[in-house]
Design goal:
The chain has 173 residues and is an alpha+beta fold. 30% of the residues lie in helices and 18% in strands. The protein is built from two helices and seven strands. The chain is globular, with a radius of gyration of 28 Å. The structure holds calcium ion (2 copies). Pfam families: Inhibitor_I36 (PF03995). This is Peptidase inhibitor family I36.
Length: 173
């Protein structure tokens, strides 16, 4: 709206003083409309710049995303393993499928193999399947995108030994 005012003032300068008391001419109206349009364009530009900044921020987190002790939805979304039943405490957070549970919960010496009690799939639209054995074998159960499950109450406590995102072509069908 500041732009509209500036354009209108600029137009008035070229008129005689009497013109101030006339109804706004079509020219004035057009100038105002144009000003609003310019303001909108500026708003869109600002939104684009913000979007770029946000993207850059996500890119900046990429290196620290997987296995940093924080269960995150950025970069496609992690799957997070907990050895507690309520998604708290130490976590193994990863963006990737894992064919063998060789790791430990972040910041601990506790192995993840056969100790997972709850999981959170933070990928909003990709199923992850957990398996009772390495290499995506043994008993399997899927967890849909965005869901949290406490496996203690579902008969899968302390059994998982691998997991695979369905987007991974090497996962079993
Ligand atoms: Ca993380
Ligand atoms: Ca197992």
């Amino acid at each position: 709206m500041i732009d509209a005012g500036q354009i209108k003032t600029g137009t008035t300068v070229h008129k005689t003083p009497v013109a101030r008391f006339e109804q706004p001419s079509q020219e004035d109206y057009s100038a105002t409309t144009e000003g609003i349009r310019m303001s909108k364009m500026r708003a869109i530009l600002t939104a684009v710049i913000l979007s770029i900044t946000t993207t850059a921020a996500f890119a900046g987190n990429a290196a620290a995303g997987s296995y940093n002790g924080v269960c995150e939805s950025s970069n496609g979304g992690e799957v997070c393993l907990y050895n507690t039943t309520n998604f708290t405490g130490a976590v193994y957070d990863t963006l990737y499928s894992k064919s063998e549970y060789t790791g430990t919960y972040y910041g601990t010496n506790t192995p993840i193999d056969n100790t997972v009690s709850s999981t959170w799939n933070r990928d909003p639209d990709t199923l992850v399947t957990f398996y009772g054995m390495p290499n995506y074998t043994g008993g399997a159960i899927g967890q849909a995108g965005g869901y949290k499950h406490s496996w203690e109450f579902m008969g899968f406590n302390n059994v998982f030994s691998s997991h695979c995102f369905e987007s991974n072509p090497s996962c079993p069908n």
